[in-house]
What does this fold into?
Amino acid sequence: MARNGIALAAHFLVIIALITIFGLTQTVAEEEGADKFTGEIERNVTLRILENDTAIQQGYLAELLKAFNEEYAQYGITAVDANMDQFLDLENDGPYGYGPDVLYQANDMLMKYVEGRHIQPMPVEELECYDKIDQKAWDAYKVNIDNFDYYCGVPINIQGPLLYYRKDLLPANWKQDWDDNNNDVPDMTENWNDMLAFSQWRKQTENKYGYMKSLYDVYFSAGFLFTYGGYIFGNNNTDPSDIGFDGGESAKGAQVLRQLATAMNQEAIDNTITQNQYSKIASGDFFATMTTPDVHTLFDKELVLAYKAQGMSQEEAEAASKENLVVADIPMLPASGDLTESNPTLMPSKMMGGVNGYAISAYTKHPNASLAFVDFASSHKMMKLRNELLGIVPARTDTANEIGDLVLIINSNLVNGNIVIMPSIRAIAQVWTPAETFFTDVAMDPFRDAGAQKYLSLDSFKEGLTKVDTQIYDAIFTLR
It folds into this structure.
């Protein structure tokens, strides 16, 4: 008994020591945060910059670092690739000195660090980009403390789904059979009813697929619920006690997903389509898919290779890809939620989106130099280059206006509320698994034996979505 008592006491001493160390770490970080940006820019320092893998692979980070280092050479400031995993856990690694000075991620990933004060609120009004970015983008990084608004990130690009399709895979008679409104735009790219009909036709007549997507993916499937009144959290996605996947008539959106699945194959139930979408679009096995604008270059590269394999020169292949790889706004949905309805009343699709941006670690020893880097990286010049190399949608309205085309569509969708920014609160982490499980179940349903199918009425979809809400609530409040 004495030995057990000594061990127990030692255990509590260790816990107390860890709490004390963590408390001191937090206190230091908080005290330093009060005046981090009031001094002069630090000189002769090295900044570690954490970017996403695509920016590294496509050469954007190298261009950014080179340009910044030339601009700030007079201060002896050098920015370097942090050479860390893009999904670094700043919460656990930052207090011990392992982590970048500046990090680039989606708003939900960055803002989860706010609760522990692991990222630093910034004086964003001092940045050159401040009045050139729409408030809805800034709101993704806003936190209200004691009735004061603070911004913990700087929006760089807006993420929102777009439709990618191959124009040269359209039927030769598409103008006669698939352009009812005579606007020279294929009907199946304008509304989901015609997309389903075309996908079924292509599967039956050509043994290939029309629209293909990994339906389990919450980021892309949740928007179908949002269109009919569903939501993630209440009070503009800030109240995790109010969960609304079953809100409004969201069951109609789930019904749409099941109907789309009937023209796909079982790859829709997992990540397979997401992984092979580039090669399958290039080979012609898929006519269309939905994904974000920043992967355009990956589709283009695969399509160029496919055209070259058909005998085209590099120049001819690049020209053909530019001509035939079309990126369009998301098709409209029927108010009824029934893709088999003739002459439906159509309404704009709402889709989940995000805002990727830069944040500054609360543990940086070079806050002013880090702020200078963020200011430089959010400039018109660098956002435009990011668009050219990665195909992203710049958050700056002046840059978006100059580029035009689909960049303006994404910005317009954000302003008009057709892009619903994913919540920037920690509880979002509990959403993905229950929602993925439901969407996987829905995608699998058409492939079950007739007697085993589960989703055959709007009530059955409603019941499934209500269970998702309960599971998310329990994960946040009951099981933690």
In short: Confidence is low (pLDDT under 50) at residues 1-34. Residues 145 and 151 are 11 Å apart (CA to CA).
